[in-house]
Amino acid sequence: MIPTVPQSNALKWSYRAYVTLFFVYLALPLSVVCAFAFNDSVFPSLPWEGFTMDWFFGTEAPYIGVFHERSILRSIGTSAFVAIWVAGMAVTVGTCNAFLFVRYDFRGKGVLYILMLLPLIIPGVILGISILVFSSSVANTLEDATGLWFDGLRPGLILVILGQFSFITTFATLVISARLQKFDLSLEEAALNLGATKWGAVRQVTLPFLLPAIIGAGVVSILMSFENFNTTLMLVGSDSPLTIAMFDKLKHGSTPVLNAVSLLLIIGSAALGLMSLLFQKRRE
Amino acid sequence: MRSKVSKMISDKSKLGFYLLLAPLVLWLVVLIILPHIGLFFVSISEKVGVRQYETGLGNYAVFFNEPLYWRTFARTAIMSISTTVLTLILGFPIAYYIAKMTRGRTKTTLFLMCLIPFWVSELVRTFGWMILLRETGIVSNALQYIGLTAGPVEFLYNDAAIMVGLVYTSILFMIVPLVTTLDSLDDSMIEAGYDLGGNGVSILREIIIPHAMPGIVSGCIVVFMLSLGNYLTPILLGGKDSLWFTGLIYTQFITRFNWELGSAFGFLLLALSSGIVFVGLKLSRQTLTETMGR
User: How many domains does chain A have?
Assistant: First the structure.
């Protein structure tokens, strides 16, 4: 079925109806989450009690808005802290990996490449528990040997950062490699001919060319880190990132303040995602 | 003199090579390889006393002897496979519509509309389904309003709710690879099929599906893995009896503090998911590098 080949009207319209229905299905859960952020009731469900902004700005219990709910604000801060570290590390290592895989030929390259892809097919929960088990056994050994405490190797933010970094790096590597492959090597050679050092040429010619991919990979890393749940769940200590804090609230039933956080999250991530797409498109 | 200079340069580029290699090797060894070896060793150690362990397959024996464990394992696998099939059936027409029936701006817009929900946290999406499906939710109220049911209906906390949530969460990962492969199918091939007397069904079977096979395989692999490893959706949308294997792993690790059994569970889940990926790649004669390394 393609537009140039005539089809019966009934078929065409039922196809369109299905596609429309599908997009309604896609939009429905997010729309209701957003709508109930404005419901003047302590439960995020019907009946509709009227419009309110209290779930954003409210200060009196039980109408405590997002901007006054300490635990949520703190968990947003924690998530941002984790995301920035993860994105920074993933993009740095990803850029190195891209240069290694695109520019060099060496023995064992194929095996390393497959190993690099592995985090994509390991379930997040398994990644979490394996890092948990490993770091705890390292901590036990070190503590037995030295008598000191190694809190960084116990569940907590450091392990959360490492756990998320362990698979987000693969995505960063793929995004940056794809762009580096399109780079015309003669540009770098020209810089070398004009007297640039190898590092100077890379810094002034190649890295600016890679910048859209590097920024894109950074944004994707931040989004993935912010919304990661499975790996984080296994490694989290006393400071919970946003998804974990929201999960705890959700399990015990909560006020529409969760809807308000979700609305902000939806706006934030859609804006970030669209921005990275636009940025990449303009550069191309 | 000259050879000395060139040797210096090659030494320098060697140094550069090792500097680039170091972070990769460090990452893979410290965060992927060693932890999984460690997980395996913990899974084959049995606790016999306080801080005393023996090597043995006891944890795996516990899994096979306790029906609750292996039934949950099988249930998780079967429901993940059903999710994958359902996602393919529902997603294929959408991907085909985006790739072949639309052009230019419409195409970009539709594609973006597919993407946006997936930039949002899975937690928010699941929360949306809870609001829709719960007893006091939108669907129940809508049904009462149009008079189909007399009282409120609970749609949450059963396997169907889990499936709805899982399909919703993973359908993008089916649609994107399908759109990419279908985009590369030339319209003239389909026209030629019609010219040679084919009808809709035979063209779908003989031309479109064979061409889309790489996309179908990579979409299915990703969706299966995401469902198998999912924790949020089954826990929040499923009922008391709707156990999911990742939930058992969590219980052993965090609630029961039985890391040995939990590790064995983790290894079994890892074996299942790698096994399915391997079989999928073999059946479609593809490699991991070309399927995942896009």
Answer: 1
- pLDDT (average), residues B269-280: 87
B186 Cβ under 8 Å from any chain A Cβ: no
Do residue B270 and residue A113 have CB atoms under 8 angstroms apart?
A: no
Q: How confident is the model at residue A208 (pLDDT cuts 50, 70, 90)?
A: confident
Which residues, numbered 196 to 235 in chain B, qualify as contacts with chain A under a Cβ-Cβ cut-off of 8 Å? 200, 221, 225, 228-232
- What is the DSSP annotation of B128-159? HHHHHHSTTSHHHHHHHHTTS-SS----SSSH
Residues of A in contact with B263 (CB under 8 A): 129, 133
How many domains, chain B?
2
Decide if B166 touches A, using CB distance below 8 A.
no
Q: In the A/B pair of chains, how many CB contacts fall below 8 A?
A: 236
Burial (0-12, 13-18, 19+ Cβ within 10 Å), B215: buried
> Can you give the CATH number for the domain in which B155 is found?
1.10.3720.10
- In a domain? residue A216: yes
CA–CA distances in Å: residue A72 to residues A37, A156, A245, B140: 15, 18, 7, 30
Nearest CA in chain A to B172: A26
For B187, nearest residue in chain A (alpha carbons)? A2
Same domain, B206 and B276: yes
| CATH value at residue A103 | 1.10.3720.10
Answer yes or no: do B85 and B7 share one domain: no
Q: Residue-wise over B6-35: b if at least 16 C-beta within 10 A, else e?
A: eeeeeeeeeebeeebbebbeebbebbbbbb
Closest-CA distance of chain B to residue A29, Å? 4
Q: Which amino acid is at B23?
A: P
Nearest CA in chain A to B236: A251
Q: What is the pLDDT of residue A163?
A: 93
pLDDT in the model for residue B4: 47
Quick one: three-class SS letters along B177-236? HHHHHHHCCCHHHHHHHHHCCCCHHHHHHHHHHHHHHHHHHHHHHHHHHHHHCCCHHHHH
Chain A CB contacts of B13 under 8 Å are 198
Q: Which residues span the domain enclosing A202?
A: 80-253
Domain encompassing residue B146: 62-292
Who has greater pLDDT, B60 or B198?
B60
Nearest CA in chain A to B152: A46
Q: pLDDT per residue over B20-53, tens digit each?
A: 888 999 999 988 899 999 889 888 888 776 677 7
Average pLDDT, chain B: 82
B196 and B161 share a domain?
yes
- Give, in order, the Cα–Cα distances in Å from B152 to each of A33, A107, B155: 20, 65, 10
Q: What is the mean pLDDT of residues B209-224?
A: 85
Give the closest of A27, A120, A166 to B292, CB-based.
A120
Is residue A50 a part of any domain in this protein?
A: no
Contact state of A29 with B132 under an 8 Å Cβ cutoff: yes
- In chain A, residues with a C-beta closer than 8 Å to the C-beta of B136 are 43, 45-46
Contact by Cβ (8 Å): B242, B158:
yes
